[in-house]
C-alpha cells in the first residue's frame, strides 16, 4: 500500500520489479539498467520526502507498512525477555515491556504494541493502552530503578484507550501518576517516538532525560482530525490543524520538546526497516553512553530543569 504523494516512487519501484521479473535468473538482470533505476528511485525518494507538508508527515507516521515496536525489537536489541502484568488487574497487550540488551547495555525496554494482523490490532486496541498497561510500565521502571538499569521507551500510539472500561479503572490517574513518577525515577530514561505520539497516551511513558523522534513521526496533544472538529467543526480541516499544531519533528525540536531527530531512510522508515532500525540503534547507544555514569541526583535535577524550560523557542 502506498500514499497518494508517493506515486513517483511507486512508479519507479514497479519498473524495478518488472525488470527483475523479466530476467530468466537473478544474475541475468541488466546491471546498468537496474543501477540507473535505483539511482532514479533514490532521487525520487529524496525529492518527495524532502518537501513533505505536516499533514503528509501525519500520513507517513500512520503508514500501514511503517515498522512497529515489535519490528524494532529483534533488529535493535540483542535479546528481549518480556514481563507481564501490572500486579493489580491484568496484562495489557497494547503496552509491553521487559529486560533487553543493546550493545553493552542491559536495559528495561517498554513500548506500544499496535499489532500486525487484524486480529492482533483488535486484541491490542490498535496500540491504545488501558490503565493496566501504564501501571505495568511503571512497575517495570521501578524494577529498572531497583537494579540500576536504564529505561528505553518506544512510543507509537494514537492515544490512550478512550473506552468506558479504561475510565472505570482510572485511565487519567494512571497516566498522571506515570508522569509524576517518571520525573523522579532514579535511572536514565530515553524515549523515542517512532510513529505516532498521541496526547496523554504517549506522555504516559515519554517523560525522559532524552526524547528522540524519527523525522517522519508526529507528537501532538490531539490528533489533527480531533483538533479540526473542535476548532472548525469540520474534520476535513485536518491538514490545516496539522500545520497549526506544530506536530512535526522539526517544529518540536525548536520548542525543545525533543532533544534529537533520528533521520529516516530517504523513502521513510517503511521503505527500509533495516536502515531505520540501524539509525535508531546508533542514536539510542549514543544517548545511553551520554547518560551512563551520571548520578541519580544529577539525572533528576537535569530532568526537572529540562521540563521547566520546555516550550521556549530556540
Question: How many domains?
Answer: 2
Q: What is the string of helix and strand elements? A: HHHHEEEHHEHHEHEEHHHEHH
First and last CA, distance? 38 Å
Class derived from helix and strand content: alpha/beta
Biggest sheet character:
8 strands, mixed
CATH C-level label of the largest domain: Alpha Beta
So, the CATH homologous superfamily of the largest domain?
Answer: 2-enoyl-CoA Hydratase, Chain A, domain 1
Q: Indicate the overall shape.
A: globular
Helix residue percentage: 40-55%
Indicate the mean pLDDT. 92
Low-confidence stretches: none
List the helices and strands and how they pair.
Elements: H1 7-22, H2 31-49, H3 54-61, H4 69-76, E1 79-83, E2 95-102, E3 105-112, H5 118-123, H6 131-147, E4 151-157, H7 164-168, H8 171-182, E5 189-198, H9 199-203, E6 210-214, E7 218-220, H10 224-231, H11 238-245, H12 249-254, E8 260-262, H13 273-291, H14 296-309
Parallel strand pairs: 3-4, 4-5, 5-6, 5-7, 6-8
Antiparallel strand pairs: 1-2, 2-3
Helix pairs in contact: 1-2, 3-11, 4-13, 6-8, 10-11
